[in-house]
Each structure stands twice: as C-alpha cells, then as structure tokens.
Design brief:
heterotrimer, A mainly alpha (246), B mainly alpha (484), C alpha+beta (343), B: 484 residues, Cytochrome Bc1 Complex, Chain C, two-stranded antiparallel sheet, C: 343 residues, Rieske Iron-sulfur Protein
C-alpha cells in the first residue's frame, strides 16, 4: 500500500518537476533573445554637442572595420580590429536617413557579419548617434531623415497598406517572423520617423481581452491550453475523485 | 427533513418527493431505470474523469455558441466598417467579419463569450486527446469496447472539423489563409479533388456567396447534432458494458466491478467537475486573449501574414505540409497526386486508420481475443505502450516542426537547418522511443515482480514465525504447572 | 500568466489535501459498507453517515462567495459600456462563481454524502436471447422462397434510391464543368492596376520592393487576378525559353497565389548585402515555398510542386504596364488538370 502511495507521489513530483523545467526553459529561451552586445569604442572626452569630429572618431572605432576607413565598403571579409572579420556595404551616398534608422533601432553596430541585423539595445547616446549620422551623411549626398506628419495620417488606410505590403514579412501584428534564409524583426516601439504607421503593439489600447501572449496567434494559445488549462483540469479531476493510485 | 436516519427507508409518509416521483413513473415508467441508474457503479480512479472534462467543455461550447449565433451574420456581402476600432474604420470587409468585430468590441459580454468559446474549443480537443491516451495506454479499447473506441475516434475527427469551421467563419486574415490551404489540400485529392472542392465551395476559391452559409449550418447545426448523437451513443455503450477498472485487491475481477455508486457519491463529483471546467474556461476567456481578430484584419486572397498558423489541433498538418519535398506525382500531363495530399490527407489518414484498426491489430499481434474488463497499467503491456509513445512522438515531432520555427531560430537554427534535422528526427526519435519505453516498461514490471516476491516472502516468514510462536506458547502452557 | 490562476491552482491542491485527510475520517464515520451489495440487510440502500456541520458551513460559505461573484458579474456588466468593459473582471466574476459552486459540490461529495464502495457483476453475454433473435428472424422469413433474389433486388433498389438522393449534391457547384478552376481574367492588352484601381506605371516600379497588381475591371478576389510585380536587373534574367520579351525593362509579373496550397506569396526576400545574404526570392509565408523570380519563379525551396505562372508584360505608349497575353500556366494549387494551358 505505502509503496504504491509513494509511487504516486513520485509520479506527481516528476510531472511537476518536468512541467516546471519546461516552463522555465521557455522563459530562459525567451530571455536568451536579448543577446550580449559588444561594447562601443568611444573617445575618453566627448564634446557637449554633436560634432563631425566625434562622428569620425566613433566611426573609426566602431564601423570602419566592416564599412572601410572612409565608408567605401569592404567586399571580402578580412580580419580587422577586435577579432572581427569585417565586411559590409559602402555608406557613400546613403545620406542621413539610413544611419539614423540603423543606429536608432540598434541594428548597427553588428558584431558578427553573418548575423542578420536585429533590434537591440542602443548603446550610443543621442549625441553620439547625431554625430555619426552627420559624419556618414557627409560621405556623399543622400536622403535626409524623413519627417512625416503622422498625426495627419489615416490609421485605417495605414492598416490596409501594412497588411498588403509589410505583413508578409513583418507579420500582421508587426511581431516579426521568418523568411527562408532570413529573420524579420518585429516593429514594436519603432518611432514614426522610421515608419509612418504605428502598428498595434502591446500598449495598443485595443489589445484587449486579457493577456495578449505575444499577439502571434495560435501557437501561444495552444501552449496555454496544454500547459495551463489541462494541468488545472487534471488538478480538478484529482480534487473530486477518491482514488489516485492505479 | 433529513435523508439520513429517519423512520424506515424513507423519510416518512409526508415526503414531498413522493408525489412527483409517482407522477413521472406513471407516465414514463422511468423508476426501474432510475433505480438501476442511480446506483450504477463508477470506478474510483481520477483518470476515468478525463472524458467527462471533454463533455463539459462541449457543454460550454454549446452554451457560449448559442450566444454567439444570436449575433453572427453569415453573409459574405461587402460592407464598410464604421465603428469604435480606428484601424478598421472605413475599410471594406464582409458582413461576417464585421459582425464578429462587433461581437468582440461592441457588446458587453461579447468578447468574454467569444474568447470562452474559443478556449473551450481548444480545450475540448485537448481533453479528448488526453482521454484517448488514457484509454489507449490502459487497454480499455479491447473487447468488448471496440465500438466505443471507434465512436470516440469519430468524435475526435468531427471535433477537428468543427473547430476548423468555427474559426474560419470569422473571415479574418489568419483563418482565411487557413481556408485557402484547406481548399488546396482538398484539390490535391487525386482525380476528384477539383469537382469535390467546387461542390463544397460552390466556385473556385474563395467560393461563392453561399459558402459561408454552408460552413455556418455545418458548424451550428449538422456537426453539433452529430457530436451530441455520438456522445449519446458513446455513453450508452459505456453504461451497457460498464467501465473498465484497475485491479484493486481481490474483489475486482474480470467479472466483478467494484466502485462508488452514481448517486449520491459520483453525481456531486461529476457535477462539481463540470463547474470546475466551466469556471476554468470562463477565467481563461476573461484573462487570456485568444484570436484577437480585429488585429488580424479582414481576409483577402492577395494578402498574407508571416507566422500564420492554424489552431493547435491542426498544427500537425502544417508541419507535415512543410516537411514534404517539392514534387507532384504526374502521369502524362495529368497531375495525379499534388504535393499537399501527403501532408494534408495521407498523413492524418494513416494516423486515424492505425488508431481505428488498433483493437484488431493488437488482437492479431498478441493472439488475445478475450473479454477484458480489467484495465492495464501502461507497464503491463510494454509493446502497446511503446507503440503508442512512438506514434505520439511521430505526430508530435511533425507538429513541433510546424510550430517551433520561431523558437528554434533563437538557438541560431535557420529554417533550412531545421528542415533537414527534422526530416531525420521524425523517424529516428519514434524508433528510439519505442525501444526505450518498451525496455522501461519491462524493467518496471520486473521490479514489481521482485517487490511482490519480497512481500510474499515476508508474509510467509511472518506466518511461519507466528506458527512457531504459537507452538512455543502452547508447549509452555502445557508444561506450566501453574496452569494445570 | 496570471497570478490568479496560480492562486487558484494552489487553493485546489491545498483543498484536495485537506479533504483527503478528512474524507478518510469521513469514510470511517460514514459507515463504509465494504463488500456489501446494494440494499443491505439493515433495510437501508444508502448507508448512514455521521452529520458534519462544519462541512455544511463550508458549503454555505462557497455558495455565498459564488453568489457574490455572480452579483459582481451583473454589476460589472451594468456599470461598464462595451467600449470600456474590463473583460478580465467579467471573466473573474463568472469564472469565480462557477469555481465556487464546483467547490461547494466537492465538499458535498467528500463530506456530506456517504461514499461507499459497492460491487456488482459485469454484464454477461446473453446467448439465449441471441439465439431467440436469430430464431425470430429465420422463422419470420420461412414463407419466402427466393430470399437471395429478393434481398438482392432490395439492395439494388436501395442503392438506386441513395444515388438518386446524392444526385442533388451535383447542384452544390459546377462539379461536371471544372472550367471555372482554370479561368483567369488576363488577356492581351489588359491594364495592370493597383489595389485602388490606379494604373501601374513602369516608372513607378522600384528595385527595392514588390508590388501587387490586378486586372483592370475584373474581380480582384478571383485567384487568377492578383499578381506580384518586381523589377530585376535585365542582364541577370534567366527566363525559360520563349519568354524572352515577357519582362520589359526587367519588370516581371507572376501570379501571387502560391502553387502549393493557395496562400498569397506575400514575401519578397530582397537582400541588402548581396555578398552575404541569399539571392532574391519570392517566398510564401505558409509553408515557405521559395520561388526564383530571375528564373521564371522556379521552386528553389519548399514543398510547391510547380513554378508560379508568369504573366507576360508590355509597356504601352503612356508608360503603363499591360498584360501581353495570359499566364504561362494554370493558377493556384495543383489538381488533376492543372498542367494544361490556362483559359
């Protein structure tokens, strides 16, 4: 009798441990999304306002190993500073729009050339970004930073345009996704300057109905059904029944 | 008035229940049935309640579904949305989609009912699968319960279709893409696929103006009636043959069932479980968002979103569709077997055929055609348990491939790498698990046997010691001069 | 996930532990009728048990809380309009009420009614009745001389009637004429327009992105209608033979409906850094069928069994894009006749 009871206890503990470990590992994997960043090389003293000089110093220390000393691009990966085998496109003629976009999203600097750029924490200060943008824009004439009047835009038209042109890669809720051979970043938290339509995000007032579980659809829903609802229902079965041992 | 104690059997001459019972029995002859039914024996083990959880989820589905049906418009006519949700304001959409947006955002309890309904659908299928696993791994499908097993599998199939139709009725982007895929899979049925899909949809995709009405009538009338009828048959078959039971001491045998009576022991438990199930589903419906269709937007055949997935119970099919290498089986210039057939039709067909034929397959393999009323513990049938685990893991690995691309990419596994890995893993893992689980079952049984032998030996030793003690005592008493 | 559900789970587990301990006492106090069949010698069918007033109090408490939750539901429903409705509160009230009723019933089951163990026989087969059924059937048919013939005739008639009923299914759709499956609205000279109906000009097609185009004046929802249009470097094109002039100025157009299962091919994988990233491709988000736009949308990855049909383009005098003919093949997911020419 007691051997069977202790066996039930063992099974129950085993199941609980397994459930906890699996849930925990999901959380850990989620946290693993925040990848470690390489540091920024910056001069020991910086001026108080954005300057071309600061921009060129930051460029030399953080960008030149992939984009070339004068931003001309490096076509074949070759070893450079900090153990980085650098390669990257030319930045001449990209203007201010591109560096502003890439730096404010954290896409750049990218530590590994085989990585795809992804949203990451921006380690540069606003002043440093403005300096770098000034510098890269000076490498050749190109488009300025766009200044959309997004408040005058129509959210509904924006939704339609997003669905037609962007959702295939970025997902209808701008949660990002997958292409064969590439990853697609989510667009939460991007400013109006970067895109002219602010997509529904976790803070969207119409994200109602409870915990959004990621807004990516049936997979987290299925996980909730199996990891939360079914265990609760199993507990309910245990609570109402007499026999727990077989 | 107390039902316990009191004079004689019943509470006395003035019992208020007496008249209604007599009234009903005179008109329906129900008393003998009630007498038997009230004391129907129910096995005690908690795992016998899993099927009930599915039943109660179905009841929640019907109740919330009735509410939704009162507000749903099954028309595909194009209308313009002018409502409280700004990103859709002024957009053209079907009347069906608009009605569901309104249910979600314009009626007080609409969102709660819709979300509870959808959670109940996910949990309904999940609980059927858990119940199926219990029945399979305890051998409860064996003679004389094969028909119950087949009816249950039929219920699972219909439940899958019912859920698919339910979320496709909304005409949102996600489910519309799912309907397109369903159309493509239907077309892939050899030779007859084209006419069959033209019959169902009424026209090439996206179908004619009647298609949504057809889905609607299937979802709210024909399939629920089928489910309810089959549940009735399922329960009647169970009651007719009585439940299986686990071996519990000497009294439970193949011919004798031991358990608790339906009334008063089991009924409050079962009804309590119903309230627990409904309560958990309503809590989910309020606290966890599901299928926020106003965010997906209306469906048009020329738009698609990344990361589109079916509801979990069809996820095994998307994995299979993605795994297939690129080929159509072509004969001359006729396309005999288009690609989606393998993942969308053949794969589920194989799984359900295997499951359905299993009672007879097992009889063939084991040569055991006897009646079984005692349920096995999974370890008591190592081959069956190992096969079940292998089959489940095969389906699960395919499901995992279809669902886990986002997670796997976090470990720097590109999609192409995942594809190649899984094409091997879906065969290797089930095969390995078969042998591992079988070994484990056998070793557990061997350990049981050792335990049993040990207990037996201890008992015999104790009996022997008692005998010796008694003999010594007797001898002492006989030789004790004082007792003479 | 919500703390409330954790709390709930803990409550259920704790409660179950409590009642398990007490139910063992309860069973002993409840007159366990081990081994007896239904309807014992004492004249009682259901054995007696000792009253448990504390359990009754528990039940009353549960019911009181459930009533409060139900009242809360009514209150929340009345106070908030649909616009501001806190769905979570509604769910907690309804769910809480139901769970508390469940709790009350569990207490009733474990402490307020007797849970006894009874035995019975499993039903046995009924060979006598089986024989009698057989006998009835045979004796009933004893007057008939040509059983096989009559049964066969009945079978034929039944089948015919069933087929007659099934024939009505033929009206559900054009099942005999699968022509509609192959029809596309594209003809030589048809203008390409965008989703708002404006003509698509060749000069508007940029290298950087993809465009969705429709035939002017036709139903955009037909799967033969939508196109995906991209501009490529003309010197890199490797179109199949016979399509040399299908891509004026490097602009190519393919059906946007995936030939695998019918989703919209809504991804254009355009590499930013061609040296390090894979080649451009049209990708379908459903099962990742990948098509090479330089090479007639040949399948380079994924399960699709045939390439996307290509639409020949021409640029008219005003610089607008027009179709120069019908597709190179039939549109959409494969079926029996899909490898014929489009109509």
């Amino acid at each position: 009798m007691s051997a069977r009871r202790s066996r039930f206890r063992f099974v129950a503990k085993f199941l609980l441990a397994w459930w906890t470990v699996a849930t925990f590992s999901f959380v850990v994997v989620g946290l693993a999304q925040a990848q470690p960043q390489s540091g920024i090389v910056r001069p020991t003293t910086e001026p108080s306002t954005p300057t071309l000089e600061l921009g060129s110093e930051l460029f030399a220390g953080n960008c030149a190993s992939c984009h070339g000393i004068a931003g001309q691009g490096i076509s074949k990966p070759r070893p450079g500073a900090g153990d980085i085998a650098g390669a990257g496109p030319s930045l001449r003629g990209v203007g201010a729009a591109a560096p502003d976009f890439y730096l404010r999203t954290g896409f750049m600097p990218l530590s590994n050339i085989t990585d795809q750029p992804y949203h990451s924490r921006v380690l540069l200060s606003n002043k440093e970004i403005k300096s770098l943008v000034k510098y890269v824009a000076s490498l050749g004439s190109g488009p300025a930073i766009p200044n959309p009047h997004w408040k005058a835009g129509n959210t509904s038209q924006g939704q339609q345009q997003f669905a037609l042109h962007c959702a295939g890669c970025h997902q209808i809720e701008a949660r990002g996704g997958f292409v064969t051979g590439a990853r697609v970043p989510p667009l939460q938290g991007v400013s109006a300057v970067q895109i002219k339509y602010i997509m529904a995000s976790a803070d969207h007032p119409w994200n109602r109905g409870g915990w959004g579980i990621g807004n990516i659809g049936p997979i987290p829903e299925g996980l909730v059904a199996w990891w939360i609802a079914i265990p609760l229902l199993l507990l309910a079965c245990l609570a109402v029944s007499r026999r727990r041992r077989a | 008035m107390s039902l316990l104690g009191g004079h004689g059997r019943n509470g006395g001459r003035s019992d208020p229940l007496r008249d209604p019972i007599r009234f009903i029995d005179e008109r329906t002859s129900a008393a003998p049935l009630a007498r038997k039914g009230l004391r129907y024996i129910f096995p005690d083990h908690w795992s016998f309640l899993l099927g009930e959880v599915a039943l109660y989820a179905f009841i929640v589905l019907v109740v919330t579904g009735i509410y939704l049906a009162l507000f749903y418009d099954d028309s595909t006519a194009k209308v313009v949305y002018h409502g409280s949700y700004a990103p859709l304001d002024g957009q053209t959409m079907s009347a069906a989609y608009r009605s569901v947006v309104n249910i979600s955002l314009s009626y007080q309890a609409g969102l709660l009912m819709r979300q509870t309904h959808h959670w109940a659908a996910d949990v309904f299928v999940a609980s059927i699968v858990v119940h199926l696993m219990r029945v399979f791994f305890t051998g409860a499908f064996r003679r004389p319960r094969e028909l119950t097993w087949l009816v249950g599998l039929g219920l699972l199939t219909i439940a899958l279709l019912e859920g698919y139709l339910g979320y496709s009725l909304v005409d949102d982007l996600l489910s519309g893409m799912g309907l397109a895929i369903g159309y493509g899979v239907g077309l892939s049925i050899p030779i007859i696929g084209g006419p069959a899909m033209l019959a169902i949809f009424g026209a090439p995709f996206p179908g004619n103006s009647l298609f949504f009405s057809r889905m609607y009538i299937m979802h709210v009338l024909l399939l629920p009636m089928a489910i309810a009828t089959m549940i009735g048959i399922h329960l009647a078959l169970i009651a007719a043959r009585h439940h299986t039971q686990f071996k519990e001491g000497k009294r439970t045998t193949e011919r004798r069932i031991v358990g608790a009576p339906m009334f008063p022991a089991q009924v409050p438990r079962s009804v309590g479980l119903m309230f627990f199930t409904a309560g958990i589903l309503f809590l989910l419906g309020g606290l966890v968002q599901i299928n926020p269709i106003w965010q997906w937007g209306p469906f048009e055949p020329w738009i698609g979103t990344n990361g589109a997935q079916p509801d979990w119970y069809l996820g095994w099919l998307i994995g299979a569709l993605r795994l297939m290498p690129s080929f159509d089986v072509v004969v001359g210039h006729f396309t005999l077997i288009p690609n989606p057939f393998w993942g969308g039709v053949a794969f589920p067909g194989v799984v359900f055929t295997l499951l359905g034929a299993w009672p007879w397959l097992e009889r063939r393999f084991t040569g055991d055609a006897r009646v079984h009323n005692i349920a096995d513990r999974p370890r008591d049938a190592p081959n069956r348990t190992a096969f079940g685990v292998a089959l489940l893991s095969w389906v699960f690995m395919i499901f995992l491939f279809g669902a886990a691309d986002r997670i796997l990419v976090l470990w720097s596994l590109g999609y192409n790498t995942q594809l190649n890995m899984f094409r091997v893993a879906i065969w290797v893992v089930p095969a390995a698990l078969f042998f591992i689980v079988r070994r484990w079952c056998r070793s557990l049984r061997a350990a049981d046997k050792v335990e049993e032998d040990r207990e037996q030996a201890e008992k015999e030793a104790a009996a022997h010691a008692a005998k010796v003690h008694a003999t010594v005592e007797r001898a002492r008493r006989l030789s004790d001069p004082q007792l003479k | 996930m919500s703390a409330l559900q954790w709390l709930l789970a803990l409550i259920v587990v704790a409660f179950e532990r409590l009642t398990r301990r007490r139910s063992r006492q309860g069973e002993n106090g409840g007159g366990k009728q081990g081994g007896g069949s239904d309807g014992g010698e004492s004249g009682r069918i259901v054995p007696a048990g000792t009253p448990q007033r504390s359990a009754e109090n528990f039940v009353l408490a549960f019911l009181a809380v459930a009533t409060m939750f139900a009242a809360g539901f009514i209150a929340v429903y009345t106070v908030f309009g649909a616009h501001l409705m806190p769905n979570e509160l509604l769910g907690i009230c309804m769910g809480g009420a139901l769970l508390c009723i469940g709790g009350a019933l569990t207490v009733v089951a474990k402490r307020l009614v007797v849970t006894e163990e009874i035995e019975d026989d499993y039903p046995e087969p009924h060979p006598k009745e089986q024989e009698e059924v057989l006998q009835i059937v045979h004796e009933s048919g004893s007057r008939i001389t040509r059983k096989r013939l009559l049964l066969g005739a009945g079978g034929v008639t039944g089948t015919a009637l069933g087929l007659a009923a099934l024939t009505t299914v033929a009206s559900l759709g054009p099942i005999w004429d699968t022509g509609p499956l192959d029809y596309t609205p594209w003809r030589r000279g048809r203008r390409l327009v965008d989703e708002a109906g404006h003509p698509l000009l060749a000069a508007d097609i940029s290298h950087e992105t993809f465009y969705t185009a429709f035939p002017e004046g036709a139903d955009p929802e037909q799967i033969g209608s939508p196109l995906v249009v991209v501009r490529l470097d003309p010197w890199l094109l490797r179109l199949p033979p016979g399509r040399a002039n299908w891509a004026p100025d490097g602009i190519v157009a393919y059906s946007k409906i995936c030939t695998h299962a019918g989703c919209a091919v809504a991804l254009y994988r355009k590499p930013l850094e061609p040296l390090l990233e894979p080649s451009p491709a049209l990708v379908c988000p459903c099962h990742y069928s990948t098509f090479d736009p330089y090479n007639g949308a040949k399948v380079i990855f994924g399960p699709a069994g045939r390439p996307l049909p290509q639409l020949p383009l021409m640029i008219d005098a005003a610089g607008g894009l027009r179709a120069a003919g019908n597709y190179s093949g039939r549109v959409g997911p494969a079926w029996w006749n899909v490898r014929e020419s489009p109509t």
